[in-house]
Specification:
By secondary structure, this protein is α/β, with parallel strands linked by helices. It folds into two domains: about 180 residues, 3-Layer(aba) Sandwich (Rossmann fold); about 90 residues, Orthogonal Bundle (N-(1-d-carboxylethyl)-l-norvaline Dehydrogenase, domain 2), CATH 1.10.1040.10. About 50% of the residues lie in helices and about 15% in strands. Strands 3-2-1-4-5-6-7-8 form an eight-stranded mixed β-sheet, with helices on both faces. The protein is globular, with a radius of gyration of 19 Å. It comes from Exiguobacterium oxidotolerans. GO terms for molecular function: 3-hydroxybutyryl-CoA dehydrogenase activity; NAD+ binding.
């Protein structure tokens, strides 16, 4: 049974995965290359925990236990040596993922499972960087991890039934619902989300409506919890553009990125993380609904 989990990458997704796993009693080590990045992640998780207490979602004792289960490290090799499962949550660049998987392959026990938190990339190709492709699959979590109920589990070509069973159990012990699907570019959720978000940018580019009007129409007319611009700003417009370019390459013209989206990214308007995307999140700006 999986008890020791290493999460590689302390960005928005990695820190969220580590938080949820530790809250459910797993022994978790969050790894990144710089202490400053880990300090930032720890501070953000403390803020999330404090909000949980205020809202009655967690008790002070539960928060204390959570942080007893959560450690922070810059030494990936040492952390991986004791892991039952390593979840990679680094940026969607194949060279970075390859470096991570080659490192953990050399350090981890033969029984250790590997997962990639990719939203579009091939778990089969990522598994080829290891000598255990049968013990590798994608675990696609959603942002914010502590609120979103789904984990999309994606089998690679050689993923074993044992791996599927083990990682499904891990996700369910984290309190998540799961779907298990076969590998195909974009999986299920990213293909749909990319199309909706990209079409919204085409609408904005064509002057069909304001961002607020388009978001409101999608939320109230189609019962989406967030509008496409709100969601794009949350996940990062650079991330959305990267995913669209990948899907355009793999699946064709219907995923060609809207020119306006490319302009926003070139201008550095990446969303909440930069203070401005489709909406303005600075103190003087008009924040998204």
């Amino acid at each position: 049974m999986v008890n020791q989990i290493v999460v590689v990458g302390s960005g928005v997704m990695g820190r969220g995965i580590a938080y949820v796993a530790a809250a459910k009693g797993f022994e978790v080590t969050l790894v990144d290359i710089e202490t400053a990045l880990l300090t930032s992640a720890k501070q953000e998780l403390e803020r999330i925990a404090e909000k949980g207490i205020v809202r009655g979602k967690m008790s002070a004792d539960e928060v204390e236990q959570l942080f007893l289960h959560l450690r922070f490290s810059t030494d990936l090799k040492a952390a991986a040596a004791d892991a039952d499962l390593v979840i990679e949550a680094v940026p969607e660049r194949l060279d970075i993922k390859r470096s991570v998987f080659e490192t953990i392959e050399a350090a981890a026990r033969p029984t250790c499972f590997f997962a990639t938190n990719t939203s579009t990339m091939s778990p089969t190709e990522i598994a080829s960087f290891t000598k255990r492709p049968d013990r590798v699959m994608a675990m696609h979590f959603f942002n914010p991890v502590h609120l979103m109920p789904l984990v999309e589990l994606v089998r690679g070509l050689e993923t074993s039934d044992e791996t599927v069973t083990a990682l499904t159990d891990v996700a369910e012990r984290m309190g998540k619902e799961t779907v298990v699907i076969q590998e195909f570019p974009g999986f299920v959720t990213s293909r749909i989300s990319a199309l909706v978000g990209n079409e919204a940018f085409y609408m904005l580019q064509e002057g069909l409506g304001t961002p607020e009007e388009i978001d409101k129409a999608i939320k109230l007319g189609l019962n989406y919890p967030m509008g496409p611009f709100e969601l794009g700003d949350l996940v990062g417009l650079d991330t959305r553009l990267h995913n669209l370019r990948y899907l355009h390459e793999k699946l064709g013209e219907k995923y060609r990125p809207a020119p306006l989206l490319e302009q926003y990214v070139k201008a550095g308007r990446l969303g909440r993380k930069t203070g401005r995307g489709v909406y303005d999140y600075t103190e003087s700006g008009v924040k998204a609904p």
